[in-house]
Amino acid sequence: MNSKTVVLVGVPWSVFELDYAVRDAATLGASLLVVDTPESLAQLGEQTAVQTRAVKALDPLLIADCVRDIEPATVLAITEFSMELAAAVREHLGIPGTPSAAEARVLDKAETREVLREHGLTQVGFHRTSLLSPEDLLGGLEPPVVVKPRSFSGSHGVTFVADRSELARVFEPYDLAETDHEERDSRVAHLSGDHRTHEVIIEEFVPGPEISVEGLVVDGKLTLFALTDKVNTGMPHFEEIGHVVPSRYTQERSAQVEEYLQAVVSALGFVTSPMHAEIKLLDDRIELVEIHTRYAGDRVVELLESAYEIRPYEAYFDAMLGGGAPDRPRPTGDHYGVGFFNGPTDAPFAWPSYAFPHPEAVTSIDLDRRRAPKVFAYEGLRIRYWRAGHALFSATDHAAVHENITFLLDHTPGQSGYGSQDA
After folding, report:
1. Which of 67, 76, 276, 354 is the most exposed, fewest CB within 10 Å of its CB?
2. Which of 298, 313, 306, 310 is nearest to 243 (CA)?
3. Helix (H) or strand (E) holding 303
4. In sequence order, what E strands does 97-158 have?
5. Residues 252-279: pLDDT tens digits?
6. Closest alpha carbon to 402 in 211, 244, 248, 240
């Protein structure tokens, strides 16, 4: 076995995430080999530090045959749509890790919710259905509810319904004729855990603050890294605008969150993998919104490295290569955040205001008006928003970072919160 080769299945949709993975693999004396289709590999551009191999299709047998000769130490994915695929490749090659069956349960929000109900880990009523059967949309539930695709992320396709008069809103972003076609998006791996976007889950709406949680599971045991505050546009689509690390709830809720999520990952069958969870904090309990066997995107890994003494990918690779469990990371003492310049995909991006309430907390701004949305639709689901850039913030005061991100929400034209301060 070549202990120096880590195979990554799939080019991340945010290619910059590979920079951290390349660096952290090198720290452990390993190199990365990315396997994907020629079309996806072309996205890497000048990413010369990464070796690549092309396959004609995202099929586990083809990928296993493609890398068998190098005897990889492990096969992983750091992009959501390749998690189950990478697990299937590991199984073909006899490499241990979280099984593909568990990855399929995690990718399917309805399957996840079924497991939670079986183990007494949720009190949320839910119903799985298809938008092609509108007569059974609610399935006995009554608004307020949230409708979301069974297998997608980034708030795309998420819709809040306050009462029955708003049900038509659920169908607005979908081309149902398109989603009923046999063709699939060739950029994305499609295995048993992936479902067409017209297959949705209806959930009872749970009020309360929503945060995200990062951690690493090694041999079934969760080590919690951080709680992260989320800023989104709110109802009806909850588009994410930014994140702050550490969360304002870190001290009072971390132990309870870790205990709850340990039960969740055990029920779902995590073996060794990152954990990114989105949860609601209620007074008497915690409710899972969704969970993934990967770290968060949206530059959260970068925020974690700044706010805590940890390199998340190094910890993950070390666990897969040598079985090492991470130490609980120590905070550096400051708060770090990212805010996104979101724009609607059906209109030109408009320049926002830069008059942040806390300019001293601005670390950097990355914004290029020449950028354009990568995709406008995914298998019949119209993508409502895209990101033209971002701003990074840091301060000793949580409020300074959070208020700068909220300022972006209220002053970027085209976002749901735009103009709210003047209302």
Report:
1. 354
2. 298
3. helix 300-307
4. 126-130, 145-149
5. 999 999 999 999 999 999 999 999 999 9
6. 244
